[in-house]
Amino acid sequence: MNQSDEQTGLGSRRLAWMAVTETLKRRMPLDDVLDELFRAESLSARDEALARAIAIVTFRRLGTLGHALRSRLNKPPKDERLMHLLAVGAAQILFLDVPDHAAVDSAVELAQGDPKLHHAGGFINAVLRRVARERDAILAESDPWLDTPTWLEERWIAQYGEDLAARIAEAHRSLPSIDLTVKGDPAAWAERLHGTLLPTGSIRLVERTAIRELPGFEEGQWWVQDAAAALPARLLGPKPGERIADLCAAPGGKTAQLAAAGAQVLAVDRSAKRLQRLQENLARLNLTAETRAIDAEKLDAPPFDAILLDAPCSATGTIRRHPDVAWTKSEEDIRKLSGLQSRLLDKAASLLKPGGRLVYCTCSLEAEEGGRQAEAFLARHPAFTRLPVTPDEIGGLADCITPQGDVRTLPCHEVLADHERSGLDGFFVARFMHNAS
Ligand SMILES: C[S@@+](CC[C@H](N)C(=O)[O-])C[C@H]1O[C@@H](n2cnc3c(N)ncnc32)[C@H](O)[C@@H]1O
Protein backbone atom coordinates (compact mmCIF):
# COMPACT_ATOMS: atom_id res chain seq x y z
CA MET A 1 0.00 0.00 0.00
CA ASN A 2 1.46 3.40 -0.84
CA GLN A 3 1.25 6.41 1.43
CA SER A 4 -1.21 8.36 -0.68
CA ASP A 5 -3.64 5.40 -0.67
CA GLU A 6 -3.58 5.55 3.07
CA GLN A 7 -4.10 9.31 3.10
CA THR A 8 -7.23 9.04 0.95
CA GLY A 9 -8.57 6.03 2.85
CA LEU A 10 -8.39 4.03 -0.38
CA GLY A 11 -6.63 1.15 1.40
CA SER A 12 -9.43 0.87 3.96
CA ARG A 13 -12.08 0.82 1.26
CA ARG A 14 -10.21 -1.73 -0.83
CA LEU A 15 -9.88 -4.03 2.18
CA ALA A 16 -13.52 -3.57 3.14
CA TRP A 17 -14.51 -4.52 -0.42
CA MET A 18 -12.20 -7.56 -0.41
CA ALA A 19 -13.46 -8.57 3.04
CA VAL A 20 -17.11 -8.52 1.92
CA THR A 21 -16.33 -10.54 -1.21
CA GLU A 22 -14.14 -13.11 0.57
CA THR A 23 -16.51 -13.53 3.53
CA LEU A 24 -19.41 -14.30 1.21
CA LYS A 25 -17.35 -16.54 -1.07
CA ARG A 26 -15.67 -18.57 1.64
CA ARG A 27 -18.56 -18.40 4.12
CA MET A 28 -16.08 -17.56 6.83
CA PRO A 29 -16.52 -15.18 9.77
CA LEU A 30 -15.83 -11.59 8.72
CA ASP A 31 -13.52 -11.13 11.72
CA ASP A 32 -11.30 -13.98 10.52
CA VAL A 33 -11.20 -12.64 6.96
CA LEU A 34 -10.32 -9.15 8.21
CA ASP A 35 -7.57 -10.56 10.43
CA GLU A 36 -6.08 -12.35 7.40
CA LEU A 37 -6.25 -9.22 5.25
CA PHE A 38 -4.80 -6.98 7.97
CA ARG A 39 -1.91 -9.41 8.43
CA ALA A 40 -1.13 -9.26 4.71
CA GLU A 41 -1.33 -5.44 4.41
CA SER A 42 0.11 -2.76 6.59
CA LEU A 43 -2.71 -0.40 7.39
CA SER A 44 -2.65 2.11 10.23
CA ALA A 45 -4.89 1.37 13.21
CA ARG A 46 -7.21 4.17 12.06
CA ASP A 47 -7.52 2.71 8.55
CA GLU A 48 -8.08 -0.79 9.93
CA ALA A 49 -10.92 0.61 12.04
CA LEU A 50 -12.43 2.31 8.97
CA ALA A 51 -12.18 -0.89 6.89
CA ARG A 52 -13.88 -2.86 9.70
CA ALA A 53 -16.63 -0.28 10.14
CA ILE A 54 -17.39 -0.22 6.40
CA ALA A 55 -17.46 -4.03 6.11
CA ILE A 56 -19.67 -4.45 9.18
CA VAL A 57 -22.23 -1.88 8.13
CA THR A 58 -22.29 -3.36 4.63
CA PHE A 59 -23.27 -6.73 6.13
CA ARG A 60 -25.69 -5.18 8.64
CA ARG A 61 -27.63 -3.51 5.82
CA LEU A 62 -26.79 -5.89 2.94
CA GLY A 63 -30.45 -6.48 2.06
CA THR A 64 -31.32 -2.78 2.04
CA LEU A 65 -28.23 -2.01 -0.04
CA GLY A 66 -28.99 -4.77 -2.56
CA HIS A 67 -32.62 -3.63 -2.85
CA ALA A 68 -31.67 0.05 -3.23
CA LEU A 69 -29.08 -0.74 -5.91
CA ARG A 70 -31.11 -3.28 -7.88
CA SER A 71 -34.16 -1.03 -8.01
CA ARG A 72 -32.01 1.75 -9.45
CA LEU A 73 -30.36 -0.35 -12.14
CA ASN A 74 -32.05 -1.32 -15.39
CA LYS A 75 -29.85 -4.36 -15.65
CA PRO A 76 -27.95 -5.24 -12.43
CA PRO A 77 -24.41 -6.35 -13.33
CA LYS A 78 -23.70 -10.07 -13.17
CA ASP A 79 -20.22 -9.52 -11.74
CA GLU A 80 -20.57 -10.09 -7.98
CA ARG A 81 -17.44 -8.13 -7.14
CA LEU A 82 -18.87 -5.11 -8.92
CA MET A 83 -22.10 -5.42 -6.92
CA HIS A 84 -20.05 -5.69 -3.71
CA LEU A 85 -18.06 -2.57 -4.63
CA LEU A 86 -21.34 -0.70 -5.18
CA ALA A 87 -22.67 -2.02 -1.87
CA VAL A 88 -19.55 -0.93 0.02
CA GLY A 89 -19.79 2.54 -1.58
CA ALA A 90 -23.54 2.86 -0.92
CA ALA A 91 -23.09 1.68 2.71
CA GLN A 92 -20.73 4.60 3.34
CA ILE A 93 -23.10 7.10 1.73
CA LEU A 94 -26.17 5.87 3.57
CA PHE A 95 -24.93 4.68 6.94
CA LEU A 96 -21.54 6.16 7.77
CA ASP A 97 -20.40 9.64 8.51
CA VAL A 98 -18.29 9.85 5.36
CA PRO A 99 -18.47 12.63 2.72
CA ASP A 100 -20.40 11.37 -0.31
CA HIS A 101 -17.61 12.37 -2.70
CA ALA A 102 -15.08 10.29 -0.74
CA ALA A 103 -17.28 7.20 -1.01
CA VAL A 104 -18.01 7.73 -4.72
CA ASP A 105 -14.50 8.73 -5.82
CA SER A 106 -12.83 5.88 -3.94
CA ALA A 107 -15.17 3.29 -5.47
CA VAL A 108 -14.46 4.67 -8.96
CA GLU A 109 -10.71 4.65 -8.29
CA LEU A 110 -10.81 1.09 -6.98
CA ALA A 111 -12.62 -0.06 -10.11
CA GLN A 112 -10.15 1.79 -12.37
CA GLY A 113 -7.27 -0.03 -10.69
CA ASP A 114 -8.91 -3.43 -11.11
CA PRO A 115 -8.08 -5.42 -14.28
CA LYS A 116 -11.66 -6.71 -14.64
CA LEU A 117 -13.58 -3.59 -13.65
CA HIS A 118 -11.49 -0.75 -15.07
CA HIS A 119 -14.22 0.02 -17.64
CA ALA A 120 -16.90 0.43 -14.93
CA GLY A 121 -15.80 3.77 -13.41
CA GLY A 122 -18.48 5.88 -15.18
CA PHE A 123 -21.22 3.41 -14.28
CA ILE A 124 -20.19 3.31 -10.60
CA ASN A 125 -20.01 7.09 -10.47
CA ALA A 126 -23.55 7.43 -11.87
CA VAL A 127 -25.09 4.78 -9.61
CA LEU A 128 -23.51 5.99 -6.37
CA ARG A 129 -24.32 9.64 -7.10
CA ARG A 130 -27.94 8.60 -7.58
CA VAL A 131 -27.86 6.73 -4.24
CA ALA A 132 -26.58 9.91 -2.58
CA ARG A 133 -29.31 12.01 -4.23
CA GLU A 134 -32.04 9.57 -3.21
CA ARG A 135 -30.71 8.92 0.30
CA ASP A 136 -33.90 10.04 2.09
CA ALA A 137 -36.16 7.80 0.02
CA ILE A 138 -33.88 4.81 0.57
CA LEU A 139 -33.67 5.39 4.32
CA ALA A 140 -37.46 5.80 4.56
CA GLU A 141 -37.89 2.17 3.49
CA SER A 142 -39.00 0.65 6.79
CA ASP A 143 -39.56 -3.05 6.04
CA PRO A 144 -37.74 -4.70 8.99
CA TRP A 145 -37.20 -7.87 6.97
CA LEU A 146 -35.14 -6.25 4.21
CA ASP A 147 -31.89 -7.04 6.00
CA THR A 148 -32.65 -10.68 6.83
CA PRO A 149 -32.26 -13.59 4.39
CA THR A 150 -35.59 -15.31 3.66
CA TRP A 151 -34.64 -18.65 5.22
CA LEU A 152 -34.01 -16.96 8.58
CA GLU A 153 -37.17 -14.85 8.28
CA GLU A 154 -39.24 -17.99 7.75
CA ARG A 155 -37.61 -19.80 10.66
CA TRP A 156 -38.04 -16.94 13.12
CA ILE A 157 -41.68 -16.31 12.16
CA ALA A 158 -42.40 -20.03 12.63
CA GLN A 159 -40.64 -20.05 15.99
CA TYR A 160 -41.50 -16.68 17.51
CA GLY A 161 -44.59 -15.48 15.60
CA GLU A 162 -44.83 -12.50 13.22
CA ASP A 163 -44.56 -9.66 15.74
CA LEU A 164 -41.69 -10.88 17.86
CA ALA A 165 -39.78 -12.09 14.79
CA ALA A 166 -40.12 -8.66 13.16
CA ARG A 167 -38.80 -7.01 16.34
CA ILE A 168 -35.79 -9.34 16.26
CA ALA A 169 -35.10 -8.37 12.64
CA GLU A 170 -35.47 -4.69 13.51
CA ALA A 171 -33.07 -5.01 16.47
CA HIS A 172 -30.43 -6.47 14.15
CA ARG A 173 -30.21 -3.14 12.34
CA SER A 174 -28.79 -1.35 15.38
CA LEU A 175 -25.37 -1.42 16.94
CA PRO A 176 -25.30 -3.51 20.13
CA SER A 177 -24.34 -1.96 23.46
CA ILE A 178 -21.09 -2.81 25.17
CA ASP A 179 -21.51 -4.64 28.48
CA LEU A 180 -18.94 -5.46 31.12
CA THR A 181 -18.78 -8.16 33.78
CA VAL A 182 -16.98 -7.04 36.92
CA LYS A 183 -15.18 -9.16 39.46
CA GLY A 184 -16.99 -7.44 42.32
CA ASP A 185 -18.94 -4.35 43.43
CA PRO A 186 -20.83 -3.71 40.20
CA ALA A 187 -22.65 -0.64 41.57
CA ALA A 188 -19.39 1.16 42.38
CA TRP A 189 -17.87 0.21 39.03
CA ALA A 190 -20.98 1.35 37.15
CA GLU A 191 -20.53 4.77 38.73
CA ARG A 192 -16.80 4.89 38.09
CA LEU A 193 -17.22 3.90 34.45
CA HIS A 194 -20.25 6.19 33.97
CA GLY A 195 -22.21 3.12 32.92
CA THR A 196 -25.63 1.75 33.83
CA LEU A 197 -25.99 -1.18 36.18
CA LEU A 198 -28.35 -3.66 34.51
CA PRO A 199 -30.78 -5.69 36.63
CA THR A 200 -28.75 -8.80 35.79
CA GLY A 201 -25.57 -7.36 37.38
CA SER A 202 -23.70 -6.44 34.19
CA ILE A 203 -22.66 -2.87 33.45
CA ARG A 204 -23.78 -1.27 30.20
CA LEU A 205 -21.50 1.46 28.93
CA VAL A 206 -23.15 4.69 27.88
CA GLU A 207 -20.40 5.94 25.60
CA ARG A 208 -18.63 3.99 22.84
CA THR A 209 -15.09 4.44 23.94
CA ALA A 210 -11.63 2.91 23.79
CA ILE A 211 -12.10 -0.04 26.13
CA ARG A 212 -8.43 -0.37 27.04
CA GLU A 213 -8.31 3.18 28.30
CA LEU A 214 -11.14 2.78 30.80
CA PRO A 215 -10.33 2.61 34.53
CA GLY A 216 -9.91 -0.94 35.77
CA PHE A 217 -8.88 -2.47 32.42
CA GLU A 218 -5.15 -2.66 33.15
CA GLU A 219 -5.81 -3.88 36.68
CA GLY A 220 -8.09 -6.63 35.36
CA GLN A 221 -11.19 -5.59 37.29
CA TRP A 222 -13.67 -6.37 34.50
CA TRP A 223 -14.05 -7.84 31.03
CA VAL A 224 -16.30 -7.25 28.04
CA GLN A 225 -19.21 -9.69 27.95
CA ASP A 226 -22.77 -9.19 26.74
CA ALA A 227 -25.25 -9.19 29.63
CA ALA A 228 -26.97 -12.30 28.21
CA ALA A 229 -23.64 -14.13 27.83
CA ALA A 230 -23.02 -13.53 31.54
CA LEU A 231 -26.14 -15.44 32.59
CA PRO A 232 -25.11 -19.11 32.00
CA ALA A 233 -22.12 -19.08 34.38
CA ARG A 234 -24.18 -17.26 37.03
CA LEU A 235 -26.96 -19.82 36.69
CA LEU A 236 -24.49 -22.65 37.23
CA GLY A 237 -24.00 -21.19 40.74
CA PRO A 238 -20.24 -21.82 41.07
CA LYS A 239 -19.01 -22.20 44.66
CA PRO A 240 -15.48 -21.75 46.00
CA GLY A 241 -13.43 -24.93 45.67
CA GLU A 242 -15.87 -26.76 43.37
CA ARG A 243 -14.34 -28.59 40.41
CA ILE A 244 -16.01 -27.22 37.31
CA ALA A 245 -15.39 -28.00 33.65
CA ASP A 246 -15.99 -25.34 31.01
CA LEU A 247 -16.13 -27.57 27.95
CA CYS A 248 -16.03 -25.02 25.11
CA ALA A 249 -14.21 -22.31 26.95
CA ALA A 250 -12.33 -19.94 24.67
CA PRO A 251 -11.93 -16.96 24.66
CA GLY A 252 -12.88 -17.36 28.29
CA GLY A 253 -15.59 -14.93 29.38
CA LYS A 254 -17.45 -17.68 31.23
CA THR A 255 -14.28 -19.36 32.54
CA ALA A 256 -13.38 -15.98 34.08
CA GLN A 257 -16.73 -15.81 35.86
CA LEU A 258 -16.31 -19.34 37.26
CA ALA A 259 -12.72 -18.69 38.36
CA ALA A 260 -13.67 -15.33 39.89
CA ALA A 261 -16.26 -17.18 42.00
CA GLY A 262 -13.44 -19.31 43.42
CA ALA A 263 -14.09 -22.54 41.51
CA GLN A 264 -11.26 -24.77 40.30
CA VAL A 265 -11.89 -24.61 36.59
CA LEU A 266 -10.78 -26.93 33.81
CA ALA A 267 -11.11 -24.86 30.63
CA VAL A 268 -11.33 -27.11 27.58
CA ASP A 269 -11.29 -25.99 23.96
CA ARG A 270 -10.45 -27.80 20.78
CA SER A 271 -8.62 -24.75 19.42
CA ALA A 272 -5.16 -24.28 20.94
CA LYS A 273 -4.99 -20.82 19.38
CA ARG A 274 -8.23 -19.72 21.02
CA LEU A 275 -7.12 -21.25 24.34
CA GLN A 276 -4.01 -19.11 24.11
CA ARG A 277 -6.29 -16.07 24.00
CA LEU A 278 -8.18 -17.43 27.02
CA GLN A 279 -4.90 -17.67 28.91
CA GLU A 280 -3.97 -14.10 28.00
CA ASN A 281 -7.40 -12.88 29.11
CA LEU A 282 -7.17 -14.72 32.44
CA ALA A 283 -3.65 -13.38 33.01
CA ARG A 284 -4.90 -9.78 32.66
CA LEU A 285 -7.68 -10.57 35.13
CA ASN A 286 -5.31 -12.25 37.62
CA LEU A 287 -7.44 -15.37 37.48
CA THR A 288 -6.35 -18.96 36.98
CA ALA A 289 -7.76 -22.05 35.36
CA GLU A 290 -6.27 -25.32 34.17
CA THR A 291 -6.49 -25.50 30.39
CA ARG A 292 -6.64 -28.41 27.98
CA ALA A 293 -6.59 -28.11 24.19
CA ILE A 294 -8.62 -31.14 23.17
CA ASP A 295 -11.89 -32.06 21.49
CA ALA A 296 -14.27 -32.16 24.47
CA GLU A 297 -15.81 -35.36 23.07
CA LYS A 298 -12.46 -37.04 23.86
CA LEU A 299 -11.94 -35.54 27.32
CA ASP A 300 -11.01 -38.02 30.01
CA ALA A 301 -11.21 -36.63 33.56
CA PRO A 302 -12.55 -37.55 37.02
CA PRO A 303 -16.20 -36.48 37.46
CA PHE A 304 -16.95 -32.79 38.08
CA ASP A 305 -19.25 -31.02 40.54
CA ALA A 306 -20.62 -28.89 37.72
CA ILE A 307 -20.19 -28.42 33.98
CA LEU A 308 -20.77 -25.49 31.67
CA LEU A 309 -21.32 -26.35 28.03
CA ASP A 310 -21.36 -23.22 25.86
CA ALA A 311 -21.60 -25.25 22.70
CA PRO A 312 -20.48 -24.20 19.21
CA CYS A 313 -23.56 -22.99 17.33
CA SER A 314 -24.80 -21.02 14.34
CA ALA A 315 -24.43 -17.83 16.44
CA THR A 316 -27.60 -16.28 15.02
CA GLY A 317 -28.12 -14.69 18.45
CA THR A 318 -25.09 -12.47 17.82
CA ILE A 319 -26.15 -11.00 14.46
CA ARG A 320 -26.15 -7.48 15.95
CA ARG A 321 -22.42 -7.91 16.65
CA HIS A 322 -21.60 -10.13 13.69
CA PRO A 323 -24.05 -9.26 10.90
CA ASP A 324 -22.10 -11.46 8.45
CA VAL A 325 -23.55 -14.50 10.30
CA ALA A 326 -26.93 -13.89 8.64
CA TRP A 327 -25.35 -14.13 5.17
CA THR A 328 -22.81 -16.90 5.68
CA LYS A 329 -24.66 -19.54 7.72
CA SER A 330 -27.14 -22.05 6.31
CA GLU A 331 -29.74 -24.62 7.37
CA GLU A 332 -27.08 -27.26 6.78
CA ASP A 333 -24.79 -25.59 9.37
CA ILE A 334 -27.61 -25.68 11.91
CA ARG A 335 -28.23 -29.36 11.19
CA LYS A 336 -24.56 -30.29 11.60
CA LEU A 337 -24.04 -28.13 14.69
CA SER A 338 -27.11 -29.50 16.45
CA GLY A 339 -25.63 -33.01 16.01
CA LEU A 340 -22.39 -31.85 17.61
CA GLN A 341 -24.31 -30.14 20.43
CA SER A 342 -26.16 -33.42 21.24
CA ARG A 343 -22.89 -35.35 21.34
CA LEU A 344 -21.26 -32.74 23.58
CA LEU A 345 -24.28 -32.81 25.90
CA ASP A 346 -24.02 -36.60 26.17
CA LYS A 347 -20.33 -36.29 26.93
CA ALA A 348 -20.99 -33.64 29.58
CA ALA A 349 -23.57 -35.92 31.23
CA SER A 350 -20.97 -38.69 31.45
CA LEU A 351 -18.47 -36.38 33.20
CA LEU A 352 -20.73 -35.24 36.07
CA LYS A 353 -20.85 -36.50 39.64
CA PRO A 354 -24.20 -37.72 40.93
CA GLY A 355 -25.99 -34.59 42.16
CA GLY A 356 -23.89 -32.45 39.79
CA ARG A 357 -25.24 -29.48 37.79
CA LEU A 358 -25.03 -28.95 34.07
CA VAL A 359 -25.71 -25.70 32.24
CA TYR A 360 -26.09 -25.89 28.47
CA CYS A 361 -26.15 -22.70 26.43
CA THR A 362 -25.82 -21.43 22.88
CA CYS A 363 -25.83 -17.93 21.35
CA SER A 364 -28.37 -19.06 18.77
CA LEU A 365 -31.98 -18.09 18.06
CA GLU A 366 -32.74 -21.50 16.53
CA ALA A 367 -34.95 -24.03 18.32
CA GLU A 368 -32.77 -26.98 17.24
CA GLU A 369 -29.86 -25.45 19.15
CA GLY A 370 -32.01 -24.41 22.11
CA GLY A 371 -35.28 -25.73 23.52
CA ARG A 372 -35.42 -28.80 21.27
CA GLN A 373 -31.91 -29.74 22.28
CA ALA A 374 -32.88 -29.50 25.98
CA GLU A 375 -35.98 -31.67 25.51
CA ALA A 376 -34.05 -34.30 23.55
CA PHE A 377 -31.34 -34.38 26.23
CA LEU A 378 -33.88 -35.03 28.99
CA ALA A 379 -35.47 -37.76 26.89
CA ARG A 380 -32.10 -39.47 26.37
CA HIS A 381 -30.97 -39.07 30.00
CA PRO A 382 -33.62 -40.07 32.52
CA ALA A 383 -31.06 -39.60 35.33
CA PHE A 384 -31.25 -35.83 34.73
CA THR A 385 -33.96 -33.34 35.60
CA ARG A 386 -34.34 -29.72 34.61
CA LEU A 387 -33.61 -27.11 37.30
CA PRO A 388 -35.96 -24.35 36.13
CA VAL A 389 -34.63 -20.80 36.23
CA THR A 390 -36.72 -18.26 38.13
CA PRO A 391 -37.00 -14.55 37.23
CA ASP A 392 -35.23 -13.40 40.42
CA GLU A 393 -32.10 -15.29 39.30
CA ILE A 394 -31.87 -13.11 36.18
CA GLY A 395 -32.70 -9.70 37.59
CA GLY A 396 -36.47 -10.13 37.32
CA LEU A 397 -36.46 -10.47 33.51
CA ALA A 398 -39.53 -12.73 33.47
CA ASP A 399 -39.98 -12.26 29.69
CA CYS A 400 -36.71 -14.09 29.21
CA ILE A 401 -37.92 -17.34 30.80
CA THR A 402 -39.73 -19.99 28.77
CA PRO A 403 -42.71 -21.97 30.11
CA GLN A 404 -40.26 -24.88 30.67
CA GLY A 405 -37.98 -22.75 32.86
CA ASP A 406 -35.16 -22.25 30.35
CA VAL A 407 -33.74 -18.82 29.53
CA ARG A 408 -34.33 -17.37 26.07
CA THR A 409 -32.98 -13.87 25.54
CA LEU A 410 -33.57 -11.92 22.34
CA PRO A 411 -31.92 -8.91 20.68
CA CYS A 412 -35.23 -7.04 21.09
CA HIS A 413 -35.58 -7.72 24.83
CA GLU A 414 -35.86 -4.48 26.76
CA VAL A 415 -33.50 -4.51 29.72
CA LEU A 416 -33.58 -0.72 30.05
CA ALA A 417 -36.32 1.87 29.64
CA ASP A 418 -34.13 3.58 27.03
CA HIS A 419 -35.04 1.63 23.88
CA GLU A 420 -31.88 2.73 22.06
CA ARG A 421 -29.66 1.17 24.72
CA SER A 422 -31.76 -1.91 25.34
CA GLY A 423 -31.42 -5.37 23.85
CA LEU A 424 -29.47 -8.52 24.60
CA ASP A 425 -27.61 -11.08 22.57
CA GLY A 426 -29.88 -14.01 21.74
CA PHE A 427 -28.94 -16.77 24.17
CA PHE A 428 -30.59 -20.03 25.16
CA VAL A 429 -29.73 -21.46 28.59
CA ALA A 430 -31.00 -24.69 30.17
CA ARG A 431 -29.96 -26.00 33.57
CA PHE A 432 -30.05 -29.66 34.54
CA MET A 433 -29.20 -31.71 37.59
CA HIS A 434 -27.93 -35.25 37.76
CA ASN A 435 -30.23 -36.99 40.25
CA ALA A 436 -28.08 -38.42 43.06
CA SER A 437 -28.78 -42.19 43.30
C1 LIG B 1 -19.34 -20.23 21.70
S1 LIG B 1 -17.61 -20.39 21.71
C2 LIG B 1 -17.27 -20.40 23.42
C3 LIG B 1 -17.25 -19.06 24.09
C4 LIG B 1 -16.74 -19.13 25.52
N1 LIG B 1 -17.49 -20.06 26.31
C5 LIG B 1 -16.75 -17.78 26.22
O1 LIG B 1 -17.63 -17.50 27.02
O2 LIG B 1 -15.83 -16.99 25.98
C6 LIG B 1 -17.43 -22.08 21.29
C7 LIG B 1 -16.04 -22.63 21.46
O3 LIG B 1 -16.16 -24.04 21.29
C8 LIG B 1 -14.95 -24.52 20.75
N2 LIG B 1 -15.25 -25.88 20.24
C9 LIG B 1 -15.93 -26.22 19.13
N3 LIG B 1 -16.03 -27.57 19.04
C10 LIG B 1 -15.43 -28.07 20.15
C11 LIG B 1 -15.20 -29.38 20.64
N4 LIG B 1 -15.63 -30.44 19.97
N5 LIG B 1 -14.52 -29.52 21.79
C12 LIG B 1 -14.06 -28.44 22.47
N6 LIG B 1 -14.23 -27.18 22.03
C13 LIG B 1 -14.92 -27.00 20.90
C14 LIG B 1 -14.56 -23.49 19.72
O4 LIG B 1 -13.18 -23.52 19.46
C15 LIG B 1 -15.01 -22.19 20.44
O5 LIG B 1 -13.92 -21.61 21.11
TrEMBL record:
Molecular function, one GO term: rRNA methyltransferase activity
GO cellular component, one term: cytoplasm
Enzyme class name: transferase
Highest rank taxon of the organism: Bacteria
Binding, S-adenosyl-L-methionine: C248, A249, A250, P251, G252, G253, K254, D269, D310
Pfam families: Methyltr_RsmB-F, NusB
EC number annotated for this UniProt entry: 2.1.1.176
Keyword RNA-binding: yes
Keywords: Cytoplasm, Methyltransferase, RNA-binding, rRNA processing, S-adenosyl-L-methionine, Transferase
Biological process annotations from GO: regulation of DNA-templated transcription
Domain SAM-dependent MTase RsmB/NOP-type residue range list: 154-435
Localisation per UniProt entry: Cytoplasm
Record's function text: Specifically methylates the cytosine at position 967 (m5C967) of 16S rRNA.
Family: Belongs to the class I-like SAM-binding methyltransferase superfamily. RsmB/NOP family.
Protein's name in the database: 16S rRNA (cytosine(967)-C(5))-methyltransferase
Source organism: Microvirga flocculans
